[in-house]
Amino acid sequence: MYKTTYPKGFPKDFLWGGATAANQVEGAWNVDGKGITTAEVVEKATDRKKMSMDAVTTDSIKAAVADPTDTRYPKRRGVDFYHHYKEDIKLFAEMGFKVYRFSIAWSRIFPKGDEQQPNEAGLAFYDRVIDELHRYGIKPLVTLSHYEMPINLTLTQNGWASRATIAAFNHFTETVFKRYKGKVPYWLTFNEINTGTWGFHETGAIDTTMSKHDQMQIRYQALHHQFVASAIATKQLHEIDPDAKIGSMLARMQTYPGTPNPVDVQAAQLEDEKNLFFTDVQARGEYPEVMNRFFADNDIEIKMAPDDQAILAKYPVDFISFSYYMTTVTKADAGEQVNGNMATGGRNPYLEESDWGWQIDPVGLRITLDEMWDRYRKPLFVVENGLGAVDQLTADHQVHDDYRIDYLRKHIQQMREAVADGVQLMGYTMWGPIDLISFSTSEMSKRYGFIYVDQDDAGKGSLKRLKKDSFYWYQKVIKTNGDDLA
């Protein structure tokens, strides 16, 4: 008889937790031998609805490298997780985290990116972080490249535009795989790899003065180098630590057709294919045919070494992770545009928006989970989802963030529905369990956390950590394995 039952809740081993990035929380940018990264040369934005993370030139980078302060570069200071990690991990444990996603800063291990010998002080720092997580029974989920690389590789070889960066990156990955063997069960290669189509922040390549065609050429070539490096890292991990798993990471940009007009439906379909192309390569091990036509139509040539395609095919990732913040609308004749977390498209009149103009669409999360499960049949992991908001600290040092609870509740409800649909979902690490420096604008006032950090946009404050109302709500969610969302 055909099976007619379905899951009524989250799996017992569901991985609840939170996610951060080194360049947004660690600080200590020039401590213990660390080198400067691409994230630390991008100035704070002047308009919170216009992301400026790719507005760099060779001259602006050299000026930033010569600047010994963090005044214009807030990611250099983060929220000082480097010195507060024990306190912060204790708070994560109090919430009941099963997993904590963080990134290893390549430049802490290899300050210039291409040294032969690693920086022991950098390796030792992550030893301490990982050991502290294990002390509380929290599993590490480590991102190998989260929007940063040593700035030296940009200045000497234009980042991932150079094939030489593959070898440098895989020397780094081999080093950390061996160092943390048996201690890190889950790894991710490149954070939101598809955003490399936007440029510098992800590729480390300077292309701001190029034509649109030349920008596309250099960005897709850089991304090919990352695909190869990701496959090699997968091979390395499977050989060094066979019990560990490695995944890809996509900025999921679900788009809807603006009208039932077949032209709009087809335009939305193409946008979705272009978004999922990256996961196709990393999870299926091959370039999809639709992108071959896209490259030909746009006069883009991907230069490959003779064995590149074989490497991609032989070493696909074990699971697929993605971020989910918003959806957009695609029309053949585009109207008013919205912009958020790298997703650009038409405004959906049925959705609300955050203070930063990001449209809020919980049902879209279920839609994308169902579609990605049907497409790949590999375990899925929602590793970013959250609400950036302007939190108000009351006179008695409280933060009543019911709006954040409401946002997360609605998204978790839709994840539960997707599990009932049959999706194999590994876990959920909401973005920014502790307030951090915004990636897109380098603001501190764009807060995501369950934990309030006393620091303003100018870097002033005590750095004291305070629990918001959402802290206790998420604690209850984890304790009940998602059954109690009230």
UniProtKB/TrEMBL annotation:
Its EC number is 3.2.1.-. GO terms for molecular function: hydrolase activity, acting on glycosyl bonds. It holds the Pfam family Glyco_hydro_1. The active site is at 384 (nucleophile). The keyword Metal-binding does not apply. Keywords: Glycosidase, Hydrolase. SUPFAM superfamilies: (Trans)glycosidases (SSF51445). It comes from the Bacteria. Signal peptide: none annotated. The keyword Plastid does not apply. Belongs to the glycosyl hydrolase 1 family. This is Glycoside hydrolase family 1 protein. It comes from Lactiplantibacillus nangangensis.
